[in-house]
Amino acid sequence: MVLGNRGRGFSSTVFGPLARLLVRWRVSPDAVTVAGTVAVVAASLTLLPNGYLVAGALVLGVLVLTDSIDGIMAREVHGDTPRPYGEFLDSTLDRFSDGAIFAGLTLFFVLRTDGATRTWGVAAAVGCLALGGLVSYARAKAQALDVVAKVGIAERADRLIVALVATLLVGLGLPEAVLVASLGLLALASLWTVGQRMRVVRHALVGERAR
Question: What confidence score (pLDDT) does residue 199 get?
């Protein structure tokens, strides 16, 4: 869920009624997870490459916010009981969603820009795509080793907010260089976050010998 623990209270207040309605209609939380992912992928790969940046940013922003509905539904149905498959499905499909957004931005630069903007825009978007995946992988691998590695300046929520806000602003008229610069800084922040998590895991597993 993109809002994470920091936004759980907000998301429960805003989306709780809809989540409870879906539960009463016997809709599965996993079905909501899949449907949300399909919607994000479809919006990312149709709106962004065709230059509909304002519509794309707004639609994706709404979909990202509603990403918490499946989690609220799961808590309504199962309480605090762990749902290993549901958590696995949600985490895995989040990677599809993130990949689609940055793939859509990559295609935007390829199809709708030229010159240095295209070159640096594609490089920045692909960097975000690759390094964002590494941020998530580092945390998941650390968890498999019984190490908590949630540190970092580029959590999933942060990455999506920066990318979508920059996309919206460029769609509203700011130079495309703003989006290029935002994605470039986001890629660097993701790389820094990977390094932070590697350091946490190394310290946890090797301890004082690492110094």
Answer: 94
